């Protein structure tokens, strides 16, 4: 990690924190404390990051990602700790799996690849599944329901 990595990451996360509604600019805004409390991390870790003094450890990064609703993958890549090559996304199947000789990605795989939080994956799968064309057998069972 270089000083440039820390500067770029801190600037990105600072903007993200503001967009998520945390008041980190006014001395008494309480945004740093609120963010630290919601993430379950020390306020000092937030302060050190925003002052470009140090990069958060892996657990703090994971907790911040969850609270800020950002995939951990994005946080690790933006921090400069890992690259996109280190954390490749699952391959997306061709429009027709038969044409490509591959199987179609499951909704569970799509949710994981998109960084959908575990507690929201069931809802994602239910909603996304409604957009997939049903097979003839499946259409018949839907008509009976």
Automatic annotation (TrEMBL):
GO terms for molecular function: DNA binding. It comes from the Bacteria. Residues 35-75 form the HTH cro/C1-type domain. Signal peptide: none annotated. Pfam families: HTH_3. CDD domains: HTH_XRE. InterPro entries: Cro/C1-type_HTH, Lambda_DNA-bd_dom_sf. This is HTH cro/C1-type domain-containing protein. It comes from Streptomyces purpureus. The lineage of its organism: Bacteria, Bacillati, Actinomycetota, Actinomycetes, Kitasatosporales.
